[in-house]
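Today's session is about reading a structure prediction critically. Students often jump straight to the picture, but the first step is always the sequence itself: look for stretches that repeat, for charged clusters, for runs of hydrophobic residues. Only then move on to the predicted structure, which in these notes is written as discrete structure tokens rather than atom positions. Here is the chain we will use throughout the hour.
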Amino acid sequence: MSDETEFAEFQQLELQIFAARDYVVPTEDLRPRVLESARCWQGFRIRLRRWSLVALICLIGWSFCLPVGRSLSQIRNRLVAPLPQEVHQTALEFSAGDASSSPWGMVEAFQQVRRPVASMLSE
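Below is the predicted structure for this chain, in token form.
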């Protein structure tokens, strides 16, 4: 008996669905609106994927550059040449100390700067 009641319930449900077929009528612009909505959503997904890829590349680049920057900052002081003002000041100090002319003080200052650089390059 229970099989017959279930069958009757399903048959009644099918009749209700069949009777409701004319209740809802889609408008003429429904399909174009759905297609346009799908295109917009697809464009949004593509842009989101691109921006995610850009963010991922930036994160990987930043992760790579951070250790490189740290190692370069540790050896920066050995690689940085003195400023021209520092060389000139050293030349003036050599000229004043030796009581010689300023050009020879400049030569002494350049030799003083060149020695550490030459020893570093020869290593």
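Discussion point for the tutorial: Residues 30-78 form one domain.
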